[in-house]
Automatic annotation (TrEMBL):
Organism of provenance: Natronorubrum daqingense
SUPFAM superfamilies: PLP-dependent transferases
CDD domains: AAT_like
The name this protein goes by in its record: Aspartate aminotransferase
Domain Aminotransferase class I/classII large: 21-356
Amino acid sequence: MEYETPLFFHVMEYADRADRDVIDMVSGNPDWEPPEALRDGLREYADLEPDRFEYPPSDGLRELREEIAARRGVDAEQVIVTNGTGEANYLAMARALERGRGDEIILTDPVYPYYPGKTTMLGGTQRFVETDEDGQLDPAVVREAASEETGAIVVNTPNNPTGAVYPEETMEALVDVAEANDAILVSDEVYDHFDLSGTFSSALRYESDHCIVTNGFSKSMASTGLRVGYAVFPEHLIENARSRHMLVNVATTRPGQYAALRSLRETNPAYHEANRELLRDRIAAFTDALDAAGAEYTTPEGSFYVMARFEGFDGSLENVERLIDEAGVAGMPGEAFGDSRGDWFRFALVTPQVTEAASRLAAFFE
Ligand SMILES: Cc1ncc(COP(=O)(O)O)c(C=O)c1O
C-alpha cells in the first residue's frame, strides 16, 4: 500500500532550490515572534538538574496537562500531550477506527491533506463531503453522508485552507450527527487563537462522549518546530490512545512541554491579539493587491490562508512551480486540498512581503 504523502515539503524544497529570490507562502509556519516566556522557558531549561533530562511521563507533564485541562474546562485525565496537533489527529483517528463501528472517515473537500493521508495509513476509507464556496460545512450534507459505516467525521475550525470558522449551530449539529451514527467527531482546533470573526465554537462545549478535540502550540505560540500539541478524549476512549502514544513515541519532548507550560502561564491575551491584528493587516494588504491583479480570492474569517484563482491558470503543482520560477512567489496548489479547489492556489500569510508577493503575481498575469 502506498501512503499519500502531503506535498508541503516537496513544494518548500522546490522553492528553496529555485534560482532566484522567492517569497515563501507555502506552509503554515508563522514568521512572527514566539512569546517571550517560551524563549525564557527554553533558556532556563538548559541549566536545570540532570533529572529534568530524563523521560517525562508518557502522557505529558502533569502540570501541563492540568493547565490545558483548566483552560479547556475538562479533566486532566482526558488530556494526552502529543508531538504536535499532527500526532493528536493521528491518535484521534486511530482511536475512532479501533472501535470497529465503521471504517469510513468523513472528510471535507477542500481538506487539510494530512487527514486523507492518515485515513489511508490507518486502513480507513475516505469519504468526502463538499463545503460551500465560503468553506462552510452544511451539517445536513454530513448527515446525509453518515451511516453505520462511519467511524469518524474529521473537521477543522478555523479552517485550513478555506479560512472558514464554523458557527455554533454547525458544531452542535456535527456532534449530533456523530452521536446519532455512533461515530466520533474529531475537531482539530489548532487555529483557535486565529479566529478573526469572533464566531469560533469549540466542540468541547457539548461535553460529548463521541467527540475528540485536538490542538497544539505550533500556531498559537508561533513555534511549529517545538512539536507540542494535545488531544482531549472522552474518558472511555483514552486508555488505548495513551498506549498507542507510548508505543509509537515513548513520550513527547520534555523541554518543549516545559517551555509551552511557562508560556501558557505567562503570556497574556495581548500577544494573541497583536498576532490577529498583524494578520488582519496582511489579509487586507494581500487581497487589495490581488484585486488590482484581477484575481478572485477568499477573505478568511480565521486561520492564516488566502485562496486565490487566476483565470486560465489552474491550481496544479506544475503551475505552482511556474509561479516559483517565473513570478518568485511560492504557494500551494489547490489540487492538493481536494477536487473542489483544483482551480485555486493557497497562500499562507506568513511573510511581511504580502504586498510585494501580490504585485509579483499581478506582473506575472498582466
Ligand atoms: C489543520 C491543521 N492541523 C494540524 C496541523 C499540524 O499542527 P502541528 O504543527 O501542531 O502538528 C496543521 C499545520 O499546518 C494544520 O493546518
